[in-house]
Specification:
10% strand; 41% helix; Rossmann fold; 2 domains; 6 helices; mainly alpha; two-stranded antiparallel sheet
Length: 187
């Protein structure tokens, strides 16, 4: 956990902040004074119109404002994300995942797998074993506990199946396995 809940989708873009001194130098640089050409009709206009004077340099606050706008643009291009995903507090004895993989889950199967992968990865970083059970598998399929790498392999090998499921039997098997591992967390 960091002290600031902010992360970036494209952190390499933040290297663009190193260009701020170059932008500051360019803002201070002024083009040379234009040469005046004598053209008789313009002499009449010059007496009528008030001359507009431009300063030699821009004011410090305007330069600072321009640099701040450039820094904000670079930061916005880095795709900031406020409050990124928190890690799974895997303090228990194991992580139990029951994943429904019957035919009706085919539409959002990718989201289910992505969520389960994040949970398994978080459990693996804490050296917590994973119990993973699928509802449309054979009743005698092994459900664990597995290490994170094996659980990820089993998850990636699973797919939605067009067979009837027996969810109460799967829940009973997971509950029986969890009794051997006290303090396990269920997702």
């Amino acid at each position: 956990m960091s002290w600031l809940p902010l992360s970036f989708g494209a952190p390499m873009v933040l290297w663009g902040l190193l260009a701020l001194p170059v932008i500051w130098w360019l803002l201070r640089f002024t083009p040379p004074k234009p040469q005046t050409e004598v053209f008789p009709p313009l002499k009449i206009l010059a007496r009528v119109l008030k001359r507009e004077e431009t300063p030699q340099q821009s004011p410090w606050w305007l330069t600072l404002l321009r640099l701040l706008m450039a820094a904000l643009i670079v930061t916005a291009l880095a795709e900031p994300v406020f409050n990124p995903r928190e890690r799974l507090p895997a303090e228990g004895a194991a992580l139990a995942l029951v994943i429904d993989n019957d035919w009706a889950t085919a539409a959002d199967w990718g989201q289910r797998v992505a969520t389960a992968e994040r949970l398994i990865t978080d459990a693996g970083s804490n050296d917590v074993p994973v119990i993973i059970a699928f509802t449309a598998e054979k009743p005698n399929a092994e459900i664990g506990p597995f290490d994170a790498a094996t659980a990820l392999d089993r998850l990636r090998a699973a797919k939605p199946r067009p067979i009837p499921t027996d969810r109460p039997a799967v829940y009973a098997r997971v509950a029986a396995t969890l009794e051997t591992l006290p303090g396990a967390s269920i997702a």
